[in-house]
Design goal:
Layout (H helix, E strand, L loop, with lengths): L1 E5 L3 H12 L3 E5 L3 H8 L4 E3 L2 H6 L6 E4 L5 H10 L8 E4 L5 H12 L4 E8 L4 H4 L2 E5 L2 H14 L5 E5 L3 H29 L8 H8 L8 H12 L15 H12 L4 H13 L5 H14 L11
Parallel strand pairs: 1-2, 1-4, 2-3, 4-5, 5-6, 7-8
Antiparallel strand pairs: 6-7
Helix pairs in contact: 8-11, 8-12, 9-10
């Protein structure tokens, strides 16, 4: 099949490479021309404008966006609208909020353009291992692009999840679960480190052990063995953890739906806390303990 990809960053470029290896004809566009030039060396046909990308594809076209969620997607869709034709398919493969998908689906449907939301997981390893893909939109649109998704995914690694928004909703939940799993590993290794046995246990060896038949084995734990092997105590890593948005969206949805989700909520809160050098809440706690119990308080010597 022919496909145009907009956004040739780490994910977008590797997805384009995998599609080329799978025998598809891929045209690519990136906002920075150098990224497009680099893609041409990979067998991808470079386009240096959105109009140029559309011109390289025969109608009905398939154009796949790999852009940061939010305004970048909306601005690109608005720029593409006058360039696209009836029966073209626009796929958003980034981590968009599913309610944005509902709005975009309805807006493009008025023009006869199909919109598909594809939640893609695989990261930098997807080029070789494949991209687990969760798809939302009209089933007919999914079936049209299924050969592309089948090439991108590992065996049995994709699923049609339902109407517009279903793909990104499912990916949002996937990423929330990822938050919880990562937090559980982090807390476990922290307790090992603090224990009397921490000195005698190598984190890299423990990560390797737990991936040999234990019930907590996982790809995340397999990945963790790498940084531990390079730096056993992670001394070069600052414990500042960003969040990409999906965890926040998932917690909001849980509140709106009245669904208890304590583990993932706490994992999100832990990330917020990691970005505070000296949380004010802890100062309040220390001050209160001194007031009601006369407990000592550590002073910085700085007057506020």
């Amino acid at each position: 099949m022919d496909i145009g990809i907009i956004g040739l960053g780490r994910m977008g470029l590797n997805m384009a490479r995998r599609l080329v290896r799978g025998g598809h004809r891929v045209a690519g566009y990136n906002r920075t021309a150098q990224a497009t030039k680099d893609a041409e060396a990979e067998g991808i046909e470079g386009a240096y404008s959105l109009a140029g990308l559309v011109e390289k594809l025969e109608a009905p076209r398939v154009i796949w966006l790999m852009l940061p969620a939010g305004s970048a997607v909306d601005l690109t869709i608005e720029a593409l609208k006058p360039l696209l034709s009836k029966d073209d398919i626009l796929v958003d493969g980034g981590n968009s909020y599913y309610k944005d998908d509902l709005r975009r689906f309805d807006d493009l449907k008025k023009l006869g353009i199909s919109y598909v939301d594809a939640g893609v997981s695989g990261g930098i390893w997807g080029l070789e291992n494949g991209y687990c893909t969760m798809v939302g939109g009209e089933r007919g649109s999914f079936e049209r692009i299924e050969p592309l998704i089948k090439t991108l995914a590992p065996p049995e690694g994709y699923l049609y999840c339902g109407p517009a928004g279903a793909g990104h909703f499912t990916k949002m939940v996937h990423n929330g679960i990822e938050y919880g799993m990562m937090e559980a590993y982090a807390e476990g290794f922290e307790l090992i480190k603090a224990s009397p046995y921490g000195e005698g246990i190598k984190n890299s060896e423990l990560a390797r052990l737990w991936n040999r038949g234990s019930v907590i084995r996982s790809w995340l734990l397999e990945l963790l063995e790498g940084p531990f092997s390079r730096d056993e105590g992670l001394s070069s890593v600052i414990g500042y953890v960003e969040d990409s948005g999906e965890g926040r969206w998932m917690v909001r949805e849980a509140v709106d739906m009245g669904v208890a989700m304590p583990v993932i909520t706490e994992a999100l809160m832990r990330r917020f806390r990691s970005r505070q050098e000296e949380p004010f809440a802890e100062k309040v706690l220390a001050a209160l303990r001194q007031e009601f119990g006369g407990h000592s308080v550590r002073r910085s010597g700085v007057k506020s």
